[in-house]
TrEMBL record, chain A:
<dbReference type="Pfam" id="PF05861">
    <property type="entry name" value="PhnI"/>
</dbReference>
<dbReference type="InterPro" id="IPR008773">
    <property type="entry name" value="PhnI"/>
</dbReference>
<dbReference type="GO" id="GO:0016829">
    <property type="term" value="F:lyase activity"/>
</dbReference>
<protein>
    <submittedName>
        <fullName>Carbon-phosphorus lyase complex subunit PhnI</fullName>
    </submittedName>
</protein>
<keyword id="KW-0456">Lyase</keyword>
UniProtKB/TrEMBL annotation, chain B:
<protein>
    <submittedName>
        <fullName>Phosphonate C-P lyase system protein PhnH</fullName>
    </submittedName>
</protein>
<dbReference type="Pfam" id="PF05845">
    <property type="entry name" value="PhnH"/>
</dbReference>
<dbReference type="InterPro" id="IPR008772">
    <property type="entry name" value="Phosphonate_metab_PhnH"/>
</dbReference>
<keyword id="KW-0456">Lyase</keyword>
<dbReference type="GO" id="GO:0016829">
    <property type="term" value="F:lyase activity"/>
</dbReference>
<dbReference type="InterPro" id="IPR038058">
    <property type="entry name" value="PhnH-like_sp"/>
</dbReference>
From TrEMBL, chain C:
<dbReference type="Pfam" id="PF06754">
    <property type="entry name" value="PhnG"/>
</dbReference>
<protein>
    <submittedName>
        <fullName>Phosphonate C-P lyase system protein PhnG</fullName>
    </submittedName>
</protein>
<dbReference type="InterPro" id="IPR009609">
    <property type="entry name" value="Phosphonate_metab_PhnG"/>
</dbReference>
<dbReference type="GO" id="GO:0016829">
    <property type="term" value="F:lyase activity"/>
</dbReference>
<keyword id="KW-0456">Lyase</keyword>
């Protein structure tokens, strides 16, 4: 039951003023600039863009600052902002094979055409806090090496394997208008395009936990990273005012191709199956988790029994959105006085009916303090 | 989104749109809302739009107010100039009748019930709204309206609806809750006959 | 949106040279465009027909990289349409929320359509933007290439 409660206006205004003060902190310390956040906390900004489902680094940096670094709050701000804007068009699907590569690795092929480039990775660091980073110590310019002529145009690993029919193909992709959960409420069973959209904007932590669960045996698929690539791709849009497609800029994305066993069925010979991850920004962990969960959710396509949480489409899709989740969890802290009072009354009646003594009934009055 | 056809880009495409997009769209939306809420009453969209043929000013204004890049739009006898105008002004691309959410048609008759989406029992709102231009709102045979939004009954006299209009309305009503909604336009004015309105010969 | 390769090729062909120039204007910085306009567009009038207005495009990916399209997420864009000297219409859409950048990109699209100005616009704007993008890409490739793993195999045991 919802009953309007009035009051607290001055308290709210002052709380927001206090928030602004605490957010700014010590005035003798310079305020963070957006370019500092976008440049030096770039991966936090990327996460806000991916889960906010809006590519705009400057705006995401503003959201990170406004939310004091609470990334789910920042994602909420971005989601709210996007609802205020009209959608002009949908782009042509981005071509990750034409990516300007900044990182590209394969755990399955040592000598993958185009090579393995580590890029700006945390891998192989010692995870030791570097005290010199406490100050603004000088940082060396990156090393350079002349790339070969064809550098930057590496074929997708799964295309290479696909030539031998050892791995499932990308499947048919012609004509269909993809489902859009920002326009039509989720319904089950969901198509793979809808699942990929939900996962791409889903919570990194939730998907990471689910992905991990598949490795620990809850929907096991025995995965390998076929390829991870990070870099910029062109965004191309067909606009009526032009009548032809134009490139309007580039976005950075992370793509993960997860390859896993498939023992075959009556109709299909054994081959490798695939899970797919694609997210805005440099978010390798998220892309990997997404690809594991995408594969787990495709259980039906491989005649696998759905037993584990990661294989349960409704469980995954209905709970992976952190803005929805935080809204429902956090609403519990809002006034529920009347609700609770009703439950209290009910409880008293039930206890009376059950023959509880007056003494224990009066003891329950202490609960009222909880309401304060 | 419908298939992408060559669009003739001309200067015409950028002319004849809303001068004040926000306020003009709000005014036209309010006019259409008023017309639908009170079936049989005439609302005026003003001289806010100057669309290419075959659209009338009211039809152009309604499409500018209601259509966007995600709207399935069908216009009977549309040419490249109109497609370019709609493309620039609304972002919408023309689709076939079966995919229309808003359709500008020559007439409302029984065949329309087979051509345009009627909605589904789960989603009756996924039906088309038809917009039909008539030569006059007061020179035709009298029709009696009743139903939601009409106090008692009301009489309208639109001309040029053609044979079988009342029968087609009856068939449309039998599809409830599915069926087509109808907007009649005449110059800059609009009159609505939503699916819930009962139309009889007076 | 068509997903038919034939249609796609046809639409791209229709764009011809203008497809390339519009893409270059869209990727240029506001400062660069402004400075180039002072040089190439001085004395011309630019009337805004629409915008600059900020909105969204839905960015799509493909399942598996090459399969059926899906909606990855939106990106903010700004578009503008202008009329140059009361005649030529130019349009632009750029990523981000910079209205002035979109307006200038649209102005350059119109200016490029004016025969007399085309050569200079292609040389001083289009070619310059493309060169800047290529140079930035080259730098990034060289830095990335330095992180390439050169594998060597170690033999173990007796052969």
């Amino acid at each position: 039951m919802y009953v309007a409660v009035k009051g607290g206006e001055a308290a709210i205004a002052n709380a927001h003023r206090l928030l602004a003060d605490r957010r700014r902190g010590d005035r003798s310390v310079p305020a963070l600039t957006l370019s500092q956040i976008a440049g030096q906390l770039a991966l936090a900004v990327d996460r806000v863009m991916a889960e906010g489902s809006l590519y705009d680094p400057e705006l995401a940096a503003m959201a990170v600052r406004q939310s004091r670094g609470d990334l789910i709050e920042a994602i909420f701000l971005i989601r709210a902002y996007r609802t205020t804007l009209p959608r002009f068009a949908a782009t042509r699907p981005i071509d990750t094979a034409a990516m300007v590569i900044e990182r590209r690795i394969s755990a399955t092929y040592k000598d993958v055409p185009g090579g393995q480039v580590l890029g700006p990775t945390f891998d192989y660091t010692h995870r030791l806090i570097e005290p010199e980073m406490a100050e603004d110590a000088p940082v060396a310019a990156p090393a350079r090496r002349d790339p070969p002529e064809d550098a930057g145009h590496a074929p997708r690993v799964t295309d290479i394997l696909g030539d031998e029919a050892l791995i499932e193909a990308d499947g048919e992709g012609k004509g269909a208008e993809p489902a859009d959960l920002t326009r039509t409420p989720l319904a089950f069973p969901a198509s793979r395009d809808l699942r990929l959209q939900a996962l791409a904007r889903g919570d990194e932590g939730f998907l990471l936990g689910l992905g991990y669960s598949t490795q620990r045996g809850f929907g096991r698929t025995h995965p390998f990273v076929g390829e991870i690539r990070i870099g910029e791709v062109e965004v191309e849009v067909d606009l009526p005012e032009f009548g032809f497609p134009v490139v309007i800029g580039r976005v950075r994305v992370t793509e993960c191709q997860m390859v896993s066993q498939f023992t075959g069925s009556k109709a299909v010979a054994p081959k490798f199956s695939r899970g797919y991850g694609l997210v805005f920004g440099q978010l390798e962990r998220k892309a990997m988790a997404m690809s594991l969960v995408d594969r787990a959710l495709r259980a039906d396509a491989f005649d696998e029994e759905r037993r584990a949480p990661a294989q349960d489409e409704e469980f995954v899709l209905a709970h992976c959105d952190n803005v929805q989740a935080t809204g429902f969890v956090e609403h519990l802290k809002l006034p529920h006085y009347v609700d609770f009072q009703a439950e209290l009354e009910l409880l008293r009646k039930m206890r009376k009916a059950a023959g509880a003594t007056d003494e224990t009934v009066s003891g329950s009055k202490g609960d009222v303090e909880v309401v304060q | 989104m419908p298939a992408n056809r060559p669009i003739d880009l001309s200067s015409r495409a950028v002319e004849g749109g809303f001068a004040n997009p926000v306020f003009d769209a709000q005014a036209v939306f309010a006019a259409v809302l008023q017309a639908i809420s009170r079936p049989g009453t005439v609302a005026d969209c003003g001289s806010r739009a100057a669309p290419p043929a075959p659209l009338s000013p009211a039809q152009g204004a309604i499409l500018l107010a209601l259509a966007d890049a995600e709207t399935g739009l069908f216009v009977e006898a549309a040419d490249a100039a109109l497609e370019a105008w709609l493309g620039f002004q609304t972002g919408a691309r023309l689709t076939e009748a079966a995919g229309a959410e808003i359709a500008v048609a020559g007439r409302f008759d029984r065949s329309a019930l087979g051509r345009f989406p009627l909605g589904t029992l789960a989603y009756p709102d996924r039906s088309a709204t038809l917009i039909v231009e008539v030569p006059s709102f007061n020179a035709g045979p009298p029709l009696r309206l009743s139903g939601p939004g009409v106090r008692g009954s009301a009489e309208i006299r639109p001309a040029g609806l053609g044979e079988g209009f009342v029968a087609a309305r009856r068939a449309n009503r039998a599809l409830a809750p599915c069926g087509l909604d109808l907007l009649l336009t005449c110059g800059s004015r609009v009159l609505a006959l939503p699916r819930s309105t009962l139309v009889e010969e007076a | 949106m068509t997903d038919d390769p034939g249609r796609r090729a046809e639409a791209e062909k229709r764009g011809g040279a203008r497809r390339r120039t519009v893409s270059a204007f869209a990727q240029a910085g506001a400062g660069f465009l402004s400075e180039a306009w002072d040089r190439l567009g001085a004395g011309r009038t630019v009337a805004v027909i629409r915008g600059p207005e900020t909105g969204l495009v839905m960015v799509r990916g493909r399942a598996g990289g090459g399969g059926a399209p899906f909606n990855l997420g939106e990106a903010s864009v700004t578009r503008a349409s202008v009329r140059l000297d009361g005649e030529t219409v130019g349009h632009a859409m750029v990523l981000g929320r910079d209205g002035e950048r979109a307006r200038l990109a649209a102005a350059f699209d119109a200016l490029w359509q004016v025969e007399a100005a085309r050569g200079a616009v292609e040389r001083e704007v289009v070619a310059a933007v493309e060169a800047a993008i290529a140079s930035a890409d080259r730098d990034r490739r060289a830095e990335t290439e330095a992180t390439k793993v050169d594998f060597f195999t170690m033999m173990r045991g007796e052969d």
